[in-house]
TrEMBL record:
Protein name from the UniProt record: Uncharacterized protein
UniProt-listed Pfam families: ADH_zinc_N_2
Gene3D superfamilies according to UniProt: Medium-chain alcohol dehydrogenases, catalytic domain (3.90.180.10), NAD(P)-binding Rossmann-like Domain (3.40.50.720)
InterPro entries found in the cross-reference section: NAD(P)-bd_dom_sf, YIM1/Zinc_Alcohol_DH_Fams
Length: 195
């Protein structure tokens, strides 16, 4: 349960009214319960794909493990923010700001083909169980957040966990990225632009 998973657990319970199961490492078991998880599996001690096999109506993947399809029930739904998109998901890359635009227009089609093929291969497990799979790229939407999120923050239902706050300086930004890249951050890493 990292920065994204933490909010996914809280929204799953408090916005969608779901009974949420999440995987975490040992030190985060209690925190996951506080965020709203009904069941917490320590993925460092148990093979979560075995413990949770065929139990989920909806899977939200923040890890990118191709084996996660095993957790989903047949004909259920899975959404990933961490795996590669399948062919359908490649439409997300049409925006110029998307990572694949770095290849330049001429090479974009070839890059899409490769990403699509690898994504298609990685998501074969979902197809074998008839699971609807979608890869999502977030685009921040203030008004959506205001409607969905603000009430839950304001009434204290969701309490964001802040791992660290860094100043908006070269060293501050470098340290923030170092912390993120090391993985296993407990909460959000903040860069404070304005005091
Ligand atoms: N598509 C998009 O628009 C979008 C947007 C934001 C982020 N992302 C992607 O979403 C992913 C998560 O982002 P994040 O900011 O939450 O990263 P993060 O803070 O590094 O979180 C990743 C977490 O996954 C946890 N985890 C849970 N189950 C796991 C398992 N079975 N095996 C390995 N790790 C497991 C780890 O938790 P422990 O600390 O307990 O080990 C780790 O902290 C990243 O790949 C990021 O690139 C995509």
């Amino acid at each position: 349960m990292g920065g994204v998973g933490m909010f996914a657990v809280a929204l799953g319970k408090h916005y969608f009214g779901a009974e949420v199961t999440t995987t975490v490492s040992t030190g985060k078991m209690e925190r996951a319960g506080q965020m709203g998880a009904a069941r917490v599996v320590d993925y460092t001690k148990e093979t979560y794909t075995e413990v949770l096999e065929n139990t989920a109506d909806v899977v939200f993947d923040t890890v990118g493990d191709a084996e996660i399809y095993r957790v989903a029930k047949h004909n259920s739904t899975a959404v990933s923010v961490a795996m590669l998109p399948d062919r359908n998901g490649l439409d997300h890359f049409r925006h110029e700001s998307a990572p694949l635009s770095l290849f330049g227009k001429a090479k974009l089609a070839a890059a899409k083909l490769i990403v699509g093929a690898v994504g298609w291969y990685l998501t074969r497990g979902f197809r074998s169980k008839g699971i609807r799979y979608g890869y999502v790229i977030m685009s921040p939407d203030g008004s959506d957040l205001e409607k969905t999120f603000n009430p839950l923050l304001e009434n204290g239902t969701i309490k964001p966990v802040i791992a660290n706050v860094y100043p908006f300086t070269t060293e501050g930004v470098q340290s923030a990225f170092k912390e993120l890249m090391a993985g296993h951050v407990a909460g959000k890493v903040i860069i404070c632009v304005k005091d």
